[in-house]
Design goal:
heterotrimer; A alpha+beta (348); B mainly alpha (559); C alpha/beta (368); A: 348 residues; Rossmann fold; 2 domains; six-stranded mixed beta sheet; five-stranded antiparallel beta sheet; 8 helices; 23% helix; C: alpha/beta; D-Maltodextrin-Binding Protein, domain 2; eleven-stranded mixed beta sheet; 15 helices; 43% helix
Chain lengths: 348, 559, 368
Amino acid sequence: MIALDVRHLSKRFHSGQYPAVNNVSFSMQQGEILVLVGPSGCGKTTTLRLIAGLERPDSGEIYLDGQVAASREVFLPPEQRGIGMVFQDHALFPHLNVYDNIAFGLRGRPSVEIRQTVHELLDMVGLEPLVKRFPHALSGGERQRVALARALAPHPVLVLMDEPFSSLDTDLRLEMREQVRSLLKAMNASVVFVTHDQEEALYMGDRLAVFQQGQLEQLGTPEQVFQNSATRFVAEFMGNSAFLSGEVIPGGIRTEVGLVSQPVDLPTGSRVELAVRVDDLDFYPDPTGNAVIVERIFRGVQNVYRLRLDSGLTLQAFKEHITMLPVGQRIQAKLNPGHPLNVFLTSH
Amino acid sequence: MNRSDAPMPPALVSPWQRLRAASNRLTTRSASPVLLAGLAGLVALFLAVPVVYIFLRAVGADAEAWQRLLQVRLWKLLGNTLLLMLAVTGGALVIGASMAWLTERSDLPGRKYFRWMFALPLAIPAYIGGIVHLALLRPRGGMLPRLLENLLGQPVYTPSPLGFWGAAFILILFTFPYVYLLSGAAFRSQHASLEEAARMLGYRPLRTFFSVTLPAMRPGLLAGALLVALDILAEYGTVALLRYETFSSAIFVQLSGRYDRSAAAVLSGVLVGLAVIILWAELHSQGQARFTQMESSWRPAPIVRLGKWRIPALLVAAGVTFTSLLVPVGVLTTWSIQAVLDPETLRSVLHSGSMGFSNFAWNSLWTSFLAALLAITLSVPVALFSVRHPSRVSRLIARVCQVGYAIPGVVIALSLVLLVNRALPFLYATPLIVVIAYVLRHVPQAVRASEAALNQVSATLEEAARVSGRTAVQAFVQVTFPLILPGLLAGGALVFLTSLKELPATLLLRPAGFDTLAVRVWVWANDGFYVQAAPAALLLVLISAVPLSFLLRREQIFK
Amino acid sequence: MSFYRLTSLLFILVLLLTACTPASPVTPEVPTAAAKLPDSTDVPTDVAATETVDQTISGKLVIYSGRSEPLIQPVIDAFKAEHPEVEVLLKAGSNSEIANALIEEQANTQADLFITTELFTVQSLSQQGIFQPYRPAAADLLPPEFVDPNNNWIGLTLRARVIMYNTDLVAPEDLPTSIFDLTDPKWKGKIAAAGSTNGSMQAQIAAMRQLLGEEETEAWLQGLLDNEVTFFGGHTDVRKAVGAGEFALGLVNHYYYHLQLDEGSKVGVIYPDQGDGQLGLITNATAVAVVKGAQNVPAAQAFVDFLVSEQGQKIFAEQNYEYPLLPGVPLREGVQPLESFRLAEVNIAEAALDSDATFDLMEKLELP
């Protein structure tokens, strides 16, 4: 069953240079977690707010559970869409305690049902003892969980989460990520999750939608998006890729650091760029090599080396932490990916 | 594909396009802004009408009226007014900032009590302070000169409270608390590291104070100074009492003199023009006042030990409190006791006016209360619109709503008399028109309070309520309103306080038989009946102290 | 939580209240509405009782007074004692302030009666058609020059412009005899007077302009200014200051001398300009007029009747030492009869035409 269907959605702000959301279409299944990911200002949050009904689209349609929520003729206000939302700053009502915050969306239901639902959720997020507390007396993680419980309480057709972990510190973020994902899966909730953190996106999402400048660049599973990036931007954003230029020859691509033998669906002689991640490059000391070490960054379990190729291009590669090579050391670099690299035609 | 996508040079964008773009923005944000914008626009219109009307009257006055005023009075009035404004602003800055330094940054003995003592003169209208000091200090006839003469057996020269110096003295005494409160907050919020950095860079303490501490407080000081300046432009009672002619008192005289309103309109136009300039500067400084706010790494700056200066500082602080608070309250109390003890005076106090004492006390209360309620109610849509939907339009509306600061009571009264009598004759000469004058003049305070309160409440709370199934109105009532209520109450308390003290507009607009405490005090004191005036004045001060202490208790240090 | 519910509820209540308020704007006047009620229900009896108008007057009576409140309140109190059903509402201010209000309100009349402290204002307003004629029965008894030929106003009392002095500060041989002595440098800084907003002072200047001409009046005023005369807002300040010895001389209405004497001060009085070729004593008449469009004409007329009745005139004479215009009402003991003085003769009608010129003069000299 389709939980959310977005068609040709566009939104432009008065002040913006380009549309905040530009002709975006996608749909998602019941029980799916779809992550909208992209750099700040890419349109992912605006898309989320359009789905929530907090913004009015310029054009395009939004269907929730098969019902039209926004179109040329129809605009359902947020309160009529039956959506749950977790905000970046949690937006807990400071004048209500934990219980009343969670019960806020249940208004109008029999009080027995409200009590039961709230306690179910409190139990699920593990906050039963804090039921009488007010938001200012909660820790960051506790607030996070109350916000989630509040969003889930009315059993919404769709849960929207807007960078929900960004206000937490790193350790807590990792912990919450796991807890929240398993909770959402346990409830079989349909979730649209917004983040700018690609690692979080890869972890949380059943599918990822990568945004840039208001446009949907790629929609796919985390693996697809990571390994088969549709555009140069996706490859760059999702894997911190560097780009190595090369030329298509029969049987592969010729580059500065040697031949990459992988099938390429491009005519021979095309100028291309290969997305090279830190794990795709190997090197060894060689006084007659093709690159020089310009910096060593100690990362604990590994050393990341910045290598300058003779062409001037800088790439990164890592070695185990016991391997220490001095800056200035001449080395021979070569590609050693063990999988096909993403290849993009060089523009202009 | 979309023609309007192309950026256009500003000059080529027609006003119509701008309007359309603006309205587009209004409608797209969410469903309610159109209504909200309409409401806020109506409030702004309501507030702007009297000013615009006075301007039109001033511009439309015949050339002869302008010429006569230009020849004889305008320059002198302008000089008088500006001179007093500068003197009082300067004096209030010096006293306010130095008292703030003493209570916030030094080990002045009893500084906890002095904080209250320095803020409480705000409960005393300047003209009541003026009445007391005039009775005390009037050359030869004052209580102090006569006491000295009796003690020493010969007349002793004492400074006169009349004229420029007297008016400046009295007005400094009763306006310095504005500067005190604002600079006190600035001193408190200042980073310790700021001064420490200067010391590390080789600055001596005194030089540090003048080159780092004070400049860092500039926004707070400037805001206080401009508030005082606006207050002086609007001041009527004190300057009239102490016989120093400024625009406000000259307009009043014009109104009660010749049978021609155009001269008064011309003077009002010039006065409002002057005030608008200062208000503009004040609004500008508001935007910059931000850099005095606290950050998370804030640490209070250390207390300075006064050492041998402790006693002199204590004497100065006590002197300021004595003249601005203890003397007025003490004298009013003494007079009130005299009035109560003398049966004939008591009878004249209780049965004075058309309706008697309790009636005008009640009038003061209900008009000020209603004004506070209306001002707050009007301020909410304006604040909601400007805080939640920032745009050029909403900013313009919020600015227009500040205009009340720039219309002195006399001018509001003149404008309302002329306007209401023609447009809404049924409102004319009702107590409601007095309330309208209070609202027009004091809405800016309410708007500022509401904006401040709304800024504390994240917009996502309202969105969370919307997503949880509440309409925009329900979200406001159930979430926003309870959270901004304390801020709204503070705004209301401020409007209530300033309306209680209002004099010139009430004097000019009240219907026959309608007195307030302020009017009653003024009428009695003007006829020289100080003892009769005292109970009403004391009651006015005591009532004013209630909202004032509520406002002060909201501040950390007054808790 | 319950606190917030409570406050929300309160807010809504308050909103409702505010929404309702404009509909019933004049909350404190509820008693008035109640007092008026019989009017509308008792229409037939009202018509039947026309011959005894005095008995049935009721409602609100709005009086605009140029006489300051303490000087009119005793008469109002006495009137209220006779007519308890009438609610008297008073607005007191300077003559010109009140006159401005009356002009402003021509199309939207608020006042029923106007009481003034000099005739220039009332004459000027009368020419502008602000009043409606009413001639009380007692008008025939008053000196004819104090009753408007068109019956638009009627005089009440006379006051003399005198110089009061502090007997401790001024030796008998030094006493001034003319208002022109006030410009003598020997009094520099020792004189108090009322300022330009005071009706009696305005009237004195208007009278002098008519009697002496613009130039001489201006020279006299300039002389006062050069002599550092202190101008107060009202005469009460002047009399108290002279009584306290703050000033040697005060230019006042004659009764201020008596009021100050009552307080036990050592003060004396001079009725100036009695010599040959001198101006004569300047007097001001107080007057009353019924405003055109008055809401409560019966009460207004009854009040005028009361003011010129023996009882009303007695109050002015007894409580305020004024010269009643109704013959036969005795002066308060100690008040010197006007018959013993030579009075300056002013043509009121003529001076009234020129009232703006008086304001121009005061403005030109920057009289405080």
